UniProtKB/TrEMBL annotation:
Annotated family: Belongs to the CDP-alcohol phosphatidyltransferase class-I family.
Organism: Flavobacterium hankyongi
Keyword Transmembrane: yes
Transmembrane regions listed in the UniProt entry: 15-35, 41-63, 75-94, 114-132, 144-168, 180-199, 211-228
Pfam families noted in UniProt: CDP-OH_P_transf
Protein's membrane topology: Multi-pass membrane protein
Protein name: CDP-alcohol phosphatidyltransferase family protein
Annotated Gene3D superfamilies: 1.20.120.1760
Length: 255
């Protein structure tokens, strides 16, 4: 009996870590697809990784097996799925913005082609700093300060799909402009580490009044996805940040 209980406990202890490693595995697969410019598959596997990232913590709390190892493992997995992959996708977007003729002819590369695409990895640097800071910031247990790396990853991964599928010429052309992409890159790294309180999407009870903000956000998000498809993803992230800022203003007024 004691051996069976010990065995069950050991299995429970490793379930969250296994789920975290699946997140990392999805990130690795997404990176391969991104390198082949199969951005839709890269988006799908990053989304899967983020899905598993949510449930590793859920099972850790449910089985009461939270550990320092799990915390560090989670950040390392996120570093790939929500850090390296979006940085590499931005690298590809900036590189592609120079035009296929110039990109394919390595001999014609000038200093801008050699240097500017690598600035996309500023997103990776910003994600790394946020993940490290998140582990030591005790203020982010029930809400977030700065945009979470998974949300930022979905934003960046959606951009090539918006270019391909949105059908809105102005948006597609803007997202193929080097200056626009560099601005998005810098804002991405900034917003992840900015002192902007963002509400949590976790619903801890079944009270409509206490979860009205979360329910409203989720309802609007569904509408965005149904109406705008892939374009709905960056709109949802922008709406999340804007709604949080407005909510912070009302909270300050109430105080």
């Amino acid at each position: 009996m004691y051996i069976n209980q010990t065995l069950k406990m050991n299995i429970k202890k490793h379930i969250p870590n296994i789920i975290t490693l699946i997140n990392l595995f999805c990130g690795c697969i997404a990176l391969v697809f991104a390198s082949q410019k199969q951005f839709e598959l890269a988006f799908i596997f990053v989304s899967l990784g983020i899905f598993f990232d949510f449930f590793d913590g859920f099972f850790a709390r449910m089985f009461k097996v939270q550990s320092e190892l799990g915390l560090q493992l989670d950040s390392l997995a996120d570093m790939v799925t929500s850090g390296v992959v979006p940085g590499y996708v931005m690298f590809q977007l900036i590189l592609n913005s120079f035009g296929s003729d110039k990109v394919n002819d390595v001999n014609s590369w000038d200093n801008s082609v050699m240097i500017m695409p690598f600035l996309g990895f500023i997103i990776t640097l910003g994600a790394c700093f946020r993940l490290a800071n998140f582990n030591i910031d005790t203020r982010q247990s029930d809400s977030f300060i700065g945009l979470p790396t998974p949300a930022n990853a979905l934003f960046i991964l959606s951009l090539p799909l918006v270019i391909q599928y949105s059908g809105i010429e102005f948006i597609s052309e803007s997202l193929q402009c080097i200056k626009v992409l560099l601005v998005i890159t810098l804002l991405s790294a900034y917003v992840m580490n900015a002192e902007i309180p963002l509400f949590s999407l976790k619903i801890k009870n079944f009270s409509f009044q206490k979860n009205a903000l979360q329910i409203f956000f989720l309802a609007v998000s569904v509408v965005f996805l149904l109406v705008f498809k892939y374009l709905g993803v960056p709109l949802i992230i922008l709406f999340y940040v804007l709604l949080s800022v407005v909510n912070n203003v009302f909270i300050k007024k109430e105080k």
